[in-house]
Amino acid sequence: MQNYFFYTKNMTVGYDGVPLIRDIQIEIKRGEILTLIGPNGAGKSTILKSIIGQLSLLNGKVQLEEVCINRLSEKERAKRLSVVLTERIHPEMMTCEEVVAMGRYPYTGRLGILSETDKKAVQRAMETVRTEELAEKEFLTLSDGQKQRILLAKAIAQDPDVLVLDEPTSFLDVRYKLEFLSVLQEMTKKKNLTVIMSLHELDLAERISDKILCVKGEYVDRFGPPENVFLPGYIKELYGITTGTFDECSGRVELPAVHGIPRVFVIGGNGSGIPIYRRLQREGIPFSAGILWENDKDTPVAEALSERVIKEQAYCPIRQDTVVCAKEEIDRCRHVICTLTDFGEWNKENKKLLLYAKDRGKLLEGERIWQK
Amino acid sequence: MKLHLPTCSGWNKKIKYTVLFGILFLIVIFFLFLNISIGSVSVPFSEIVETLAGNGEDMFRNIIIEIRFPRSVAAIILGGALGLSGFLLQTFFHNPIAGPYVLGISSGSKLAVAIVMVVFLRFGIRISSVLMILAAFAGAMLSMGFVLLISRWLPQTAMLVVSGIMIGYICSAVTDLIVTFAEDSDIVNLHNWSMGSFSGISWSNVAVMIIVVAAAGGLTFLMSKPISAYQMGESYAESMGVNIRSFRIALVLLSSMLSACVTAFAGPVSFVGIAVPQIMKRMFHTAKPLFMIPACFLGGAVWCLFCDLIARTLFAPTELSISTVTAIFGVPVVIYVMICRKKERPD
Q1: Domain of B265?
Q2: ipTM attached to this prediction
C-alpha cells in the first residue's frame, strides 16, 4: 500500500476550524490523473486549496512519497507542487514569457534574475503547451483560452512533481478544452507528472482520469477508477439531478422528457431517430419510439426523451409479439414518422410497420411533419 | 506619426532601459543645478560648480550651501521616497490609484507630528528629526490600519480610495484644530509645514532622511522578487513560495516608513505617489519591480525638484505650498490613468 506517490490520511478540510469534508483518503500513483467531481459548492476547491497549503488542514495529513507536504518550507513545496487556479489575474504590462518565467521563482536567486537553465526551462514549458508564438505578447491582451495555456506553461516551468488545477477548462471552448487536457495527458506520460484537478465536464473527467473523487456532503462519496464511479444512475444521484438525464456510458445529457399520451410514433434506428426525438422534445410533443434493439444508438436517447420505447433484445431477430405491441402503439398515436430509409435483412418488421402506418394514413413525410 | 519603440527581448530591452535610466539621471542632475541656480538671487551654473569645488564668492556660498543645496537634495530624497511608497501601495492594493496621500497615510502622519510638536513645544523641548519621523510613522501606521480594515470590508477599488480620502479629511481637520488652538509663535512654522513645503530643511535633517530612505529603499529593492510574484495575485504568489503574511507586513511597514519620512520633514505632499509609478510604468513599458523601484525613485526625485522650483519661483517672493503644485501636475495623470483603465477593463 505504501507505494502510492501521493496520498492523504484522514484529511479533514474546512474554513475557520469548521470542518466541511471529513476523512478524505486519496491514494494515487506517480503519473496518474485524479479528478475531483461533485456539485457546485461541494468543496472541490476547498480540498485543492488544502492540498496546496493555502488552507490549513483541520486534521490528518497530505503525503508526497515519504514527506509530509504541510511540513515543507514554502520554497520546497513550490518546487514539488505547482498550481493553475480559478483566480483571474491582471499582471500589468507583463509579456507571456515573463508570466511563464514567474514559474522559476523557487529556483532563482535573491533578485529573481533568470539563469540560462531557467531560460531554457521557460522555453521548454512554452513549447510543451505550444505557445512559443505568444512569448512577446502582452498577457492581458490574450483570450481566455490562451491565458489558461500560459498559466499551464507557468505551472510546468515550475518543474513540479504534482500539478494541481482548479477547474482549468471552465472558460475554454471545446477545441481548447481538448488541447489543454491532451497536454496534461502528455505530461503524465512523458514526464511522469502527477495531476490533481477539479472538472465540471463529466464526459471529459470520465475519459482523462485514472482516479475520480466524488465530493458530496460531509464525506467523500466515492473514490476509484472512472469505471467504478460512472455506473448507471450514479451521476444523477451525486448531483441530485431532478430534471433531465445523464448517460454515464456516453457522457451525454438530455433535457427532461415531455410526458403525456404519445401523439407521434417514431420508427427509427441506427442514430437516425435522435434529431427527431430532440425536436419533438423541443416542440413539447409526447411521443413513443420503436422498434429499437436494446443496443441501438437511438435507444438511450429514446429512453430519456420518449413516453414509451418498444424494444427488442440485442442481437435477436424482431419477435412477433414485439411487432404486435408496436402496431397497438401506432393505433393509439395520431401520426407516425419514419426516419429509416434503408431496411436491412433483419429489419423487415420495421418496414412492415411503415406500410401499416401508410395504409392507415398516419404517415407524415418531408416538411409536412412539422406543419401538423 | 507613432513613435515605434523596440519591443524585442534581450539586447534591445537592455539598451532601452539603460538609456532611460541615463536620461532620468541626467534630468535629476539638471534640475538639481536649476533649483540651486534660480531664486531671488540667481546664481550662474558656473558659480555653483566653483562653490562646490570650494572656491566661489561668499555671498553665493551661503545661499547655495546652507539653503538651496540641502533643500534640493531633500526634494530628491523625499520625492524618491514618495515615488517608491506609491509603487509599493499600488502593488499592495492591486490598485493603480493608490498612494500615500489619497489613502490618508500622509494625513495620519501629519496629525501625529502636529500633536507631538504642540505638546513638546508647550514643555519647551526641542524636537529631533528622529522623533518627528517616529511620530509620523506611528500616524502612518494608524491610518494604514484603518485603510486595511476598511479594505477588508469593501474590496472595491473605488471604495478603498474614498475611505482613504475620508480618513485624510478627518486627520486634516483635527490637525487644523490643534494648529488653531496651539499658542506659540512657532505655529506659523507649523502651519507652513502642515500645508507641505520643502523650505527650512537643514543638512542635519538631510542626513537623517538619507539614512532612513536609503535603508527603506534598499530593503524594498531586496524585496523586488516577492513583489513581482505578488503582482500575479496573492494565491499564485503563495503557490510559488512567498510567505504572504510576512510579505504583506513588510510591504505595509516599508511604504508607511517611506511616506512618514516625507511627512515628517516636508508635510503631506500630494499625488506624487500615484502619478510617478504610473508614468514610469508607461515609460519603461514594464511593471517589473527590479526596474520600477529605481525608476520610481528617480522619477519622484525629478517630479519634486520640478514642482519645488515652481512653488518657489512662480509667485516669488510668495511661496506656494508644494502640494498645490504637485496636485496641478499629478491630478491629470491620475485622471488619464483612470480613463485608460476603464478602456482596458470595462467593469
Answers
A1: 79-339
A2: 0.85
pLDDT at B246 over 70: yes
User: Which cell numbers hold the place of B266?
Assistant: 516636508
Q: Which of residues 232-251 of B touch A (CB under 8 A)?
A: 232-233, 235-236, 238-243
Q: How far is A83 from chain B (nearest CA, A)?
A: 7
Task: Flag whether B151 is in a domain.
Answer: yes
Q: Residue A109's Cα: distance from chain center in Å? A: 41
- pTM for the whole structure: 0.87
From residue A185, alpha-carbon distances to A155, B8, B286 in Å are: 15, 33, 35
Q: A77 and chain B: CB distance < 8 Å anywhere?
A: yes
Domain CATH number, residue B274 = 1.10.3470.10
Residues 6+ apart with CB under 8 A from A64: A5, A6, A80, A81, A161, A162
Q: Which residues of A touch B231 (CB under 8 A)?
A: 91-92, 94
Disruptive mutation site among A69, A74, A80 for chain B (greatest number of B CBs within 10 Å): A74
E-assigned strands of chain A? 6-15, 18-24, 27-28, 33-37, 59-64, 67-68, 81-84, 162-166, 194-198, 211-216, 219-224, 245-247, 252-254, 264-267, 287-293, 308-312, 335-338, 363-364
**Cα gap A178→A277, rounded to integer Å:** 28
pLDDT grade, residue A367 (50/70/90)?
A: low
Residue/partner pairs of B184-192 with CB below 8 Å, 24 or more apart: B184/B118, B184/B121, B184/B122, B186/B117, B186/B121, B190/B114, B190/B117, B190/B118, B192/B267, B192/B321
Total tally of structural domains belonging to chain B: 1
Q: Give the cell for residue B294.
A: 529605481
CA distance A205 to A208: 6
Q: Which residue has the cell 401506432?
A: A330
